[in-house]
Amino acid sequence: MAHEVPIIDISPIRGDDEPARRRLADAVNEALERIGFLVVVGHEIPADVTRRTYRAAAAFFDRDLDDKNRIRIVPGTVPRGYLPYGAVALAQTEGEVTPPDAKESFGMGPERLQQNRWPEGDDEFRDASIECFTAMESVMTDMLRVFALCLDLDEHWFVTKFEGHDSTLRLFNYPEMTQQPLPGQLRSGAHTDYGALTILSIGDDDPGGLQVRSPAGEWVDVVAPPGSFVINVGDLLMMWSNDRWLSNLHRVVLPADPARATQRRQSMCFFANPRADVLIECLPNCSDEQHPPLHAPIPAGEHRLAKVRASEPVASR
């Protein structure tokens, strides 16, 4: 069951070995059609970048709640700033009524847009987050090029749709559980992602982890080696591909061993979003007479807003 999500080396996308690039595209395409998830190695992000971000994030989340709430996200607005514990119930976006998710988070985006909200007097947190965001952009570009090869498009077809993107880096803190969780409460309820793709670092050897729905309908653990990233497609790529690729349900569970629930867990997610005005419609080579387009065209930003409203009164990504 640990091998449901394959581990794939993406380094060939940065080379000129065409057979290797073709094998990479075929392996990624198979994973996205079957389960919508893969684990990638061979990226160019140094381990020190994520380690620094985790350390800075832990220090931020250890601040007093009043201090963190000074940069709290206003529900329904651009998700920049802090969301306290219990402010989100992601399963609501799938129409499921559940207790709030057992986590808190911080979100930031491109500095060029000047929308970010930073805690006062913490340059280390700001600098580490910006450095991590920039590094994640490089992985995003690599994956967009791979996706284009998978669909027999010009290699930069998707890249052009992300020029001027407004993606979000979310830093998550799943604090120790000091009391019994509510019935049905998870660290993140079952949901699909709103955007095009997600780049996730799940930390090293943290207890209580990410699960994805297998083709057989079972929840399986995602196993990722240290330094790797979990990649999954979101709703927009599923619509672009006419459901050829799966925007799959996933969740973050509480540890099965109650003793391990006393330990903190951290993760970081880069939610890659195309420009809000990009029209998401079925690609011509993803439909034919037997497979007509399944989704009405919609601007990327409009789809995202609909998901935000589905999750209100909590703020979204």
Task: Please tell me the CATH architecture by its name.
Answer: Sandwich
Low-confidence stretches: 313-317
CATH topology (fold) name: Jelly Rolls
Between the first and last Cα atoms, what is the distance in angstroms?
Answer: 30 Å
* Range of helix content: 25-40%
Count up the helices: 7
By DSSP, the count of extended strands is 14
Briefly, what CATH class?
Mainly Beta
Write down the domain tally: 1
Mean pLDDT value: 90
* CA-atom Rg in angstroms: 19 Å
Strand order of the largest sheet: 1-2-10-7-12-5-4-3
Secondary structure elements and pairings:
Blueprint: E1 7-9, H1 18-34, E2 37-41, H2 47-61, H3 65-69, E3 81-83, E4 104-108, H4 123-150, H5 157-161, E5 168-174, E6 188-191, E7 197-201, E8 210-213, E9 219-221, E10 229-233, H6 235-240, E11 250-252, E12 265-272, E13 279-280, E14 298-299, H7 300-311
Parallel strand pairs: 1-2
Antiparallel strand pairs: 2-10, 3-4, 4-5, 5-12, 6-11, 7-10, 7-12, 8-9, 8-11, 13-14
Compose a concise summary of this entry:
This protein has helices spanning 18-34, 47-61, 65-69, 123-150, 157-161, 235-240, 300-311, and strands at 7-9, 37-41, 81-83, 104-108, 168-174, 188-191, 197-201, 210-213, 219-221, 229-233, 250-252, 265-272, 279-280, 298-299.
